[in-house]
């Protein structure tokens, strides 16, 4: 023991002759202490806590384990050790000590800000598991909170190096309010737009929206403070500025999904030269159509009764059935018995204004499904049948002749 004491006395006496060596040993000891503390905090404590959380069944613990909350918080340990231990290093000038303390304090502020940011990420992850999250996303508000936290962090770091209080800095920034308004103009507009979108329930995650001005036509997959991300049906991604959804026009197809039905609104263009009165033979032949039997018998009775009152009138003054009117009745009966058509919704077959490319005969109805593939199959099946049966009514579809 005496030999060891004597050795230490000689060692310290030797280092006293070389102040820079004493300072170097102190710095190495401080850095080594901070490194060991950081290693223990991250590799032992953090990993241990993470493994425990992963084993627990709670969804909250699982979300906490997958994010870097504890890891970010562990960065505070070496910063505190360096900030408080730099004073004990001998032969360091006050300026260097103060500079190292400011740098350590800056690291401390950043670690706290990043920790709070990760906590907000955890909160957002947990909130998204709630079924109501699609209707009321909060990602934009959390991003605004992160922005405010990092602004405060930047002010505290600036105050540390300028040796001024944060509140004095904020008072000084009052004169720069106009400049700040210009810098954060997009953020302010996006925040106001986000509040309006949430208040009026204009868009939810999962909605199908259509915005031709920005070539967006697909499902909303993400909503943040500044942007709304849309995955188009061709799998491309369109990013829409949030404020554009308030200032520009877009179509939201959510009502179609909510109602469970989807509209068919499509026309067949009839060659007007093929429209004519029906003969007795035509009526007899069409009575074989199950859908038209009752209709034709009823119409014949009405027309016979009406024409009986006009016995002395010319034939052209009397009522007669037309092939187009009969075809309209056939379409109406066909749609009302067709599988896939919503019977409790409006079913309408109407003539539109004649055009140079034929007489539009519009079918207006709703399918009882909103699935795109099924909807297109039902619509195509209807028009396949109607186009194929047109010749039975002596009608033709308008088709422009080839011009050589």
TrEMBL record:
GO BP terms, alphabetized: cellular response to osmotic stress
Keywords: Membrane, Transmembrane, Transmembrane helix
Transmembrane segments: 20-41, 62-82, 102-123, 144-162, 168-195
Predominant location: membrane
Gene3D superfamilies referenced in this protein's UniProt entry, alphabetically: 2.30.30.60
Residue intervals of the Mechanosensitive ion channel MscS domain: 186-254
Keyword Transmembrane helix belongs to the record: yes
Subcellular localization: Membrane
Keyword Oxidoreductase appears in the UniProt entry: no
Gene Ontology cellular-component terms listed: plasma membrane
GO function terms (MF aspect): mechanosensitive monoatomic ion channel activity
Name used for this protein in its record: Mechanosensitive ion channel MscS domain-containing protein
């Amino acid at each position: 023991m005496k030999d060891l004491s004597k050795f230490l006395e000689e060692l310290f006496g030797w280092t006293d002759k070389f102040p820079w060596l004493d300072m170097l040993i102190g710095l190495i000891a401080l850095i080594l202490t901070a490194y060991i503390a950081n290693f223990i905090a991250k590799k032992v404590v953090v990993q241990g806590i993470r493994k425990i959380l992963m084993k627990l069944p709670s969804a909250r613990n699982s979300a906490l384990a997958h994010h870097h909350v504890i890891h970010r918080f562990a960065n505070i340990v070496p910063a505190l050790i360096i900030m408080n231990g730099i004073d004990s290093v001998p032969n360091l000038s006050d300026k260097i000590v103060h500079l190292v303390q400011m740098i350590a304090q800056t690291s401390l502020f950043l670690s706290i800000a990043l920790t709070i940011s990760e906590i907000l990420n955890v909160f957002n992850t947990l909130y998204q598991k709630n079924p109501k999250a699609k209707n009321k996303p909060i990602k934009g508000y959390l991003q605004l909170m992160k922005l405010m936290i990092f602004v405060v962090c930047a002010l505290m770091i600036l105050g540390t190096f300028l040796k001024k209080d944060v509140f004095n800095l904020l008072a000084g920034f009052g004169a720069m309010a106009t400049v700040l308004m210009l810098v954060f103009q997009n953020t302010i507009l996006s925040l106001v737009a986000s509040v309006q979108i949430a208040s009026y329930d204009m868009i939810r995650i999962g909605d199908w929206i259509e915005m031709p001005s920005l070539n967006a036509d697909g499902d909303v997959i993400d909503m943040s403070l500044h942007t709304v991300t849309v995955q188009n049906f061709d799998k491309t991604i369109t990013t829409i500025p949030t404020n554009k959804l308030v200032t520009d026009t877009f179509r939201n197809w959510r009502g179609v999904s909510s109602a469970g039905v989807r509209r068919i609104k499509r026309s067949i263009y009839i060659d007007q030269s093929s429209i004519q009165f029906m003969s007795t033979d035509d009526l007899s032949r069409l009575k074989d159509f199950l859908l038209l039997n009752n209709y034709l018998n009823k119409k014949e009775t009405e027309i016979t009764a009406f024409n009986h009152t006009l016995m002395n009138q010319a034939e052209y003054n009397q009522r007669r059935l037309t092939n187009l009117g009969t075809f309209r009745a056939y379409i109406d009966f066909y749609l009302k018995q067709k599988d896939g058509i919503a019977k409790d919704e409006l079913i309408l077959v109407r003539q539109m204004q004649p055009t140079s490319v034929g007489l539009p005969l519009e079918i207006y109805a709703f399918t009882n499904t909103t699935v795109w593939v099924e909807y297109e199959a039902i619509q195509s099946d209807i028009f396949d049948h109607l186009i194929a049966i047109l010749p039975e009514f002596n009608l033709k579809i308008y088709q422009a002749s080839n011009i050589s």
